[in-house]
């Protein structure tokens, strides 16, 4: 499991390097990224996100949500496992924050074809980073469920089954919050590109063809920017965000 997490994390580092390369190719974005503000906002974002996750785990510990020991070193192995998972998620959280920072940087955008391509690229980065985060967290949820089953198999009193569900739901909430935070920023930028790129004239029967052409062009641009999205993409995004909770449900149903 740790090896899988490290492999996913290495993919995150490559994604971060690719994103930084794209940023460096846009002078205004490169200047914004280098003035220190992006770094401060990224640190604040990471502190808040990991703070919420740690608080969730601390509250669970205070509530006595701990399984009896069934293996040597369980008392330190489980915390270390969570730390490793947290390290593996780091590059993806940084990617997501940098995506949000870039799309909210006013002077880094216009309505050119390159900007349209960049929005599509950042949407792919959002989906890929969220999917990777979902996979890392889902594996942690499965490990928690497996430990509970091992305790039960040893004829000891395990944590209630609902704990695994609550565990998965808590991490799902954090992942959903981050996803919506970045997705909202991306959608806002895409809508601004549409609004500035294709201005719709006032309705005029004498210029109906021009009006219809503008509306059609506006609709095509919105589609290119993936505004609204198709049903398949939306379903995939929903499943990715819910993957920790899905893993908890499968762990309970499958007896993992």
Notable traits:
single chain; 256 residues; mainly alpha; elongated
Question: In brief, what are we looking at here?
Answer:
The chain has helices at 2-24, 27-34, 37-62, 74-103, 113-153, 161-197, 208-224, 231-241, 243-254. The chain has 256 residues and is mainly α.
Layout of SSEs?
Blueprint: H1 2-24, H2 27-34, H3 37-62, H4 74-103, H5 113-153, H6 161-197, H7 208-224, H8 231-241, H9 243-254
How is this structure best described in words?
The structure is a single chain. This protein is elongated. It is built from 9 helices and no strands. It is mostly helical and 256 residues long. The model has no long low-confidence stretch (mean pLDDT 80).
DSSP strand count: 0
Order of helices and strands: HHHHHHHHH
Low-pLDDT ranges: none
Estimate what percentage of residues fall within beta strands.
under 5%
The biggest sheet, with number of strands, parallel, antiparallel or mixed sense and barrel status, is: none
Shape field:
elongated
* Mean pLDDT over the residues: 80
Helix content: over 70%
Distance between the termini: 15 Å
Rg, Å, rounded: 22 Å
Helix/strand/pairing category? mainly alpha
Q: List the total number of helices.
A: 9
């Amino acid at each position: 499991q740790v090896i899988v997490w490290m492999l996913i994390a290495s993919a995150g580092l490559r994604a971060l390097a690719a994103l930084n390369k794209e940023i460096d190719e846009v002078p205004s974005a490169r200047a914004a990224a280098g003035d220190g503000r992006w770094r401060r906002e990224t640190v604040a974002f990471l502190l808040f996100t990991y703070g919420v996750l740690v608080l969730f785990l601390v509250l669970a510990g205070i509530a006595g949500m701990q399984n009896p020991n069934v293996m040597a070193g369980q008392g330190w192995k489980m915390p270390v496992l969570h730390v490793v998972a947290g390290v593996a998620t780091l590059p993806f959280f940084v990617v997501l924050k940098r995506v949000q920072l870039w799309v909210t940087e006013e002077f880094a955008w216009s309505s050119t074809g390159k900007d349209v391509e960049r929005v599509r690229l950042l949407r792919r980065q959002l989906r890929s980073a969220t999917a990777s985060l979902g996979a890392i967290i889902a594996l942690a949820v499965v490990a928690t469920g497996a430990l509970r089953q091992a305790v039960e198999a040893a004829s000891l009193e395990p944590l209630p089954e609902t704990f695994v569900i609550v565990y998965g739901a808590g991490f799902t909430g954090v992942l959903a919050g981050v996803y919506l935070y970045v997705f909202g920023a991306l959608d806002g930028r895409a809508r601004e590109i549409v609004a500035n790129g294709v201005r719709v004239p006032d309705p005029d029967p004498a210029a109906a063809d021009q009006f219809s052409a503008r509306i059609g062009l506006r609709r095509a641009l919105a589609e290119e920017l993936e505004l609204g999205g198709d049903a398949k993409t939306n379903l995939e995004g929903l499943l990715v965000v819910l993957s920790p909770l899905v893993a908890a449900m499968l762990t309970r149903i499958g007896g993992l």
